UniProtKB/TrEMBL annotation:
Pfam families: PIG-L. This is N-acetylglucosaminylphosphatidylinositol deacetylase. GO terms for biological process: GPI anchor biosynthetic process. It is an enzyme of class 3 (hydrolase). The gene is Pigl.
């Protein structure tokens, strides 16, 4: 629930506002508030527990595409990496069994710090490197993504301000199939 600084309720509202900006209805947003899954960048979550929760959500929403972090978690955040591990666990152990056989998983490529902060210049690099999918946002989509990020006021620390101005993830995202 994003309660690392005791801001869980604030961050839930910010998430709903951000999703609204992106055109995602509140009914499609699920916030998991589980005592064994604390919002803490130093805590590695239990893979099987998280895998079970993710799988329940996939089943309940009849999801056929999952987009998640890769093993680097984009920022090295332990919770992001745990989510990748749980989704990978599901793919390896469960998703190949019907009714989840039709569910595809794409993982967002973590890039080095230099590439992460060269904004649109990374489009050239990303086009040359191997990947399964490449999403290049239009200027309008980039502005929408920025508006969505600005909804997360409680998290807009100095380094996230840099992210908003220079991150390639607001312009280009390379993904691979898991």
């Amino acid at each position: 629930s994003g309660n690392y600084y005791n801001q869980g309720e604030i961050r839930k509202k910010e998430l709903e506002q951000s999703c609204c900006v992106l055109g995602i209805p509140a009914s499609d947003v699920t916030v998991i508030d589980h005592r064994d899954l604390p919002d803490d960048p130093a805590v590695e979550w239990d893979t099987q527990l998280l895998a079970t929760l993710v799988l329940k959500h996939i089943e309940a929403k009849n999801i056929n595409l999952v987009l998640t972090f890769d093993a680097g978690g984009v920022s090295g955040h332990a919770n992001h990496i745990s989510l990748y591990s749980a989704v990978r666990y599901n793919v390896c152990k469960l998703l190949w069994v019907p009714p989840w056989a039709g569910c595809r998983v794409l993982v967002l490529e973590s890039v080095n710090l230099c590439r992460k902060y060269i904004s649109f210049l990374d489009v050239l690099i990303s086009c040359l490197l191997p990947r399964d999918a490449l999403f290049i946002l239009t200027e309008e989509e980039t502005e929408q993504a920025k508006r969505a990020m600005l909804c997360h006021r409680s998290q807009l620390l100095w380094f996230r301000q840099l992210y908003l101005r220079f991150s390639r993830y607001l312009v280009v995202n390379s993904l691979r199939l898991l």
